[in-house]
């Protein structure tokens, strides 16, 4: 305890952290220092603890669960502090793994876009086309013909503009994607990798679900509870409000798993990697329901925010009031999104090369590997990392 309280006490003082004090027999008190208690860090902590490793898990924020953190607000409504998190995956393995720590509430996500004075489904589907252009396309085949007539072929699809324009043409691109993307990323879609807008498909059916994955659900008691169950293990010591810097000289463990921004770990040696940040304006309103679906997107650049989320749709909570949040994107602040474009990937590769050159630190997660990953992908990456560590250890023991 004294080691940690010393570390915490050091925060805010100018004193550099004292190099430790190895244990009398020269061993570190933990096998792993895991930095960041989001999905990447918590899954690895859980897996390692389960095979008998001693883990010190810290997060600089005052809570676990990373960006998936949810909490009851002053009105008693469960909100997602860092914006709407909807779990979806096609992986049975990942769903089964997380199901050890939570029950689920079935939930299929639906999003409407506020365009041309109407609320229309996004991803664009047959209903969106009929609503926007006042058509009566009765089946998939008719919608496909309509879209084919609007699509503008692009020889080499590279950017987030290309991918949309080549499927639906300029007008639909401008209506649903251009403004939203400019606000969200501070960049024109033509300056972003195709992978960004390719997350949103185009449909000719009237299926208006945001995701088509096999498993779509919300943790029945919330994400934070899922994390509490995951890291509740005698081999895991959790310290929130503790930055890596506060403990890095303490020689707590021989190996570190780092899930914060990789460029920050290396003191931005090659310059900062761009991350997109967000500001959330949370409000509680004196009505039962504010909007008909959990999320309404606002593509127009005349509106400063990108989307509005009403949490009760996600959680199924009944309450006389309702809580919503507005999202405003910005360049500075807490890093939320890596920005997928070639020059950023090239800079990341330089940091990745530094990471590869040392085997006592392992980088995992959305910030640690600079990848625009969903929650399930981060869980998958963490499970794969654990398997790799296990294998390396088995090989070392054998030799
Ligand atoms: P994080 O959750 O960011 O965890 C990293 C942790 O490391 C943070 O808690 C941070 O405080 C800590 N940390 C960083 N540096 C340090 C340091 N130096 N010392 C100590 N601690 C440190 N995914 C979905 O699947 N579905 C969705 O609907 C969805 N919606 C999203 C909406 C928004 C607005 C955002 C931003 C993301 C969304 N995601 C969604 C993605 C999801 O949040 C991520 O995939 C996932 O949370 C990443 O987990 P992680 O552990 O890699 O990172
Ligand atoms: N996008 C858009 N209009 C929309 C929804 C999405 O232009 O109505 C684009 C935008 O560039 C966004 C990207 O598609 O950043 C991915 O959307 P998603 O909803 O997956 O973003 P996230 O939930 O990760 O913020």
Automatic annotation (TrEMBL):
The chain holds residues 337 to 735 of 741 of the full protein. The lineage of its organism: Bacteria, Pseudomonadati, Pseudomonadota, Alphaproteobacteria, Hyphomicrobiales. It comes from Neomesorhizobium albiziae. GO terms for molecular function: flavin adenine dinucleotide binding; UDP-galactopyranose mutase activity. Belongs to the UDP-galactopyranose/dTDP-fucopyranose mutase family. Transmembrane segments: none annotated. Its cofactor is FAD. This is UDP-galactopyranose mutase. GO terms for cellular component: cytosol. Residues 176-372 form the UDP-galactopyranose mutase C-terminal domain.
């Amino acid at each position: 305890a004294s080691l940690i309280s010393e570390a915490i006490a050091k925060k805010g003082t100018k004193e550099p952290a004292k190099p430790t004090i190895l244990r009398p027999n020269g061993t570190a008190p933990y096998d792993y220092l895991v930095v960041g208690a989001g999905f990447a860090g918590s899954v690895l902590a859980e897996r390692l603890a389960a095979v008998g490793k001693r883990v010190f898990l810290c997060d600089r924020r005052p809570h676990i669960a990373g960006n998936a953190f949810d909490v009851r607000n002053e009105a008693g409504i469960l909100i997602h502090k860092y914006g709407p998190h909807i779990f979806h995956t096609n992986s049975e393995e990942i769903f089964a793994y997380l199901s050890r720590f939570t029950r689920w509430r079935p939930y299929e996500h639906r999003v409407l876009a506020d365009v041309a004075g109407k609320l229309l489904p996004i991803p664009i589907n047959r209903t969106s086309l009929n609503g926007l252009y006042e058509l009566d396309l009765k089946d998939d085949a008719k919608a496909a013909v309509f879209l084919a007539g609007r699509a503008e072929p692009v020889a080499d699809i590279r950017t987030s503009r290309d991918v949309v324009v080549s499927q639906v043409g300029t007008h639909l691109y401008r209506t649903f994607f251009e403004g939203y993307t400019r606000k969200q990323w501070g960049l024109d879609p033509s300056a972003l990798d195709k992978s960004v807008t390719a997350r949103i498909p185009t449909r000719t059916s009237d299926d208006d679900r945001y995701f088509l994955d096999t498993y779509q659900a919300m943790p029945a008691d919330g994400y934070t509870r899922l994390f509490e169950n995951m890291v509740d293990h005698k081999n895991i010591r959790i310290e929130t409000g503790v930055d890596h810097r506060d403990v890095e000289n303490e020689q707590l463990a021989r190996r570190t798993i780092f899930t914060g921004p990789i460029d920050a770990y290396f003191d931005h040696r090659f310059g900062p990697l761009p991350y997109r940040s967000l500001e959330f304006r949370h409000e509680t309103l004196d009505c039962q329901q504010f909007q008909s679906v959990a999320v309404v997107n606002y593509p127009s650049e005349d509106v400063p925010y990108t989307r509005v989320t009403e949490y009760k749709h996600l959680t199924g909570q009944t309450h006389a009031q309702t809580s919503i949040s507005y999202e405003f994107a910005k360049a500075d602040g807490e890093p939320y999104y890596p920005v997928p474009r070639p020059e950023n990937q090239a800079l990341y590769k330089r940091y990745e090369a530094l990471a590869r050159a040392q085997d006592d630190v392992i980088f995992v997660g959305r910030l640690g590997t600079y990848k625009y990953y969903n929650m399930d992908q981060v869980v998958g990456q963490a499970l794969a990392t654990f398997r790799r560590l296990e294998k390396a250890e088995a090989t070392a023991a054998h030799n």
